[in-house]
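Practice problem 4.
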């Protein structure tokens, strides 16, 4: 066995494998409203992050996404309680004074009855959205976003640079905030709340502006935005294939998610659209000359990690399509059951904690 094929060989896993694994968990979460199953997905993602995160600044991003997920659940419950016009359930928590709204806001209310059933439904929906967000946060914690640029096709080089810059914004912001907070503590200042935020916001903003200027200078020195020698005919063909492929992929996703759609709008349309997109990207990258220094390998651990996420997404799609995955918080209000088969499928996403190699800088 080659060293790169062994999980015991410490190396940096290809970032694309981590993102495919995280997207598989996110797709599974998008099909589930059962809060217990969403908590299992959160636990699986957190377990893998704790086992295989690096000591880099973005390694602590998962905790920030968890806190953001809690905020999303709270905001979703508040909006449901105060603004939703749907009266769900009979167990009333409080009857707030109702404020009349104009006719063009007929779908909303302000005040009125707030029931336990409506709060639980909002909590389930907010937890589902928070789980999807935390899956993306797990990818940010495990993968170096800047290394994704090496795997981007030549036709999407400029778009890839923009995406990488956007993905690295949150980890770099957290790193700057931790650096400023540590510096303030060394100087004997440890204020919290709004006052501490005001003193920390300006240094963080200044650091972000300096980093943007340095990034622009580095991109300019490396010839970013240079013109290529691709002919107009090839560019038109590539654009047409991409547009047709993306439309076919959208139709295929609709056919998969909708049971009443025609059979040809499912996996056949998705496969043809994916093939058209790949062909268009390959044709568009013919005139773009790129070199790679120390290219990231795609070996057996990458296939195992990506396959784990794909197995969770496909398994949840086929197994959790019934009432076990979709619950409603109506009377009687009981804790929803967590079917063992669905839980077993979700636990397949924890295998990267064993199959993925340790990061080069070691475990925390």
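Answer key:
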């Amino acid at each position: 066995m080659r060293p790169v094929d062994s999980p015991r060989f410490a190396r940096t896993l290809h970032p694309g494998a981590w993102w495919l694994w995280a997207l598989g968990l996110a797709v599974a979460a998008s099909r589930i409203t059962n809060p217990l199953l969403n908590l299992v997905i959160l636990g699986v993602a957190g377990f893998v992050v704790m086992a295989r995160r690096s000591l880099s600044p973005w390694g602590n991003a998962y905790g920030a996404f968890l806190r953001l997920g809690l905020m999303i659940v709270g905001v979703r419950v508040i909006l449901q309680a105060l603004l939703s016009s749907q009266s769900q359930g009979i167990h009333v928590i409080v009857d707030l004074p109702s404020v009349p709204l104009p006719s063009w806001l007929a779908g909303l209310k302000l005040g009125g009855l707030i029931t336990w059933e409506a709060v639980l439904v909002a909590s389930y929906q907010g937890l589902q959205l928070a789980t999807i967000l935390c899956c993306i946060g797990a990818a940010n914690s495990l993968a170096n976003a800047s290394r994704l640029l090496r795997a981007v096709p030549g036709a999407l080089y400029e778009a890839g640079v923009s995406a990488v810059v956007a993905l690295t914004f949150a980890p770099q912001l957290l790193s700057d905030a931790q650096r400023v907070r540590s510096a303030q503590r060394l100087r004997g200042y440890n204020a919290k709340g709004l006052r501490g935020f005001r003193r920390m916001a300006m240094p963080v903003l200044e650091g972000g502006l300096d980093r943007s200027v340095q990034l622009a200078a580095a991109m300019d020195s490396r010839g970013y935005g240079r013109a290529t020698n691709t002919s107009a005919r090839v560019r038109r063909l590539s654009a047409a294939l991409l547009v047709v492929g993306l439309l076919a992929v959208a139709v295929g996703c609709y056919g998969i998610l909708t049971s009443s759609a025609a059979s040809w709008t499912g996996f056949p349309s998705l496969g043809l659209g994916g093939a058209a997109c790949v062909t268009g990207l390959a044709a568009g990258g013919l005139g773009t000359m790129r070199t790679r220094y120390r290219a990231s390998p795609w070996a057996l651990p990458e296939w195992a990690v990506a396959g784990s996420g794909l197995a969770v997404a496909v398994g949840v799609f086929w197994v959790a399509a019934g009432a076990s995955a979709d619950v409603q918080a109506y009377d009687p209000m009981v804790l929803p059951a967590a079917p063992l088969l669905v839980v077993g499928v979700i636990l397949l996403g924890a295998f990267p904690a064993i199959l993925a190699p340790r990061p080069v800088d070691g475990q925390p």
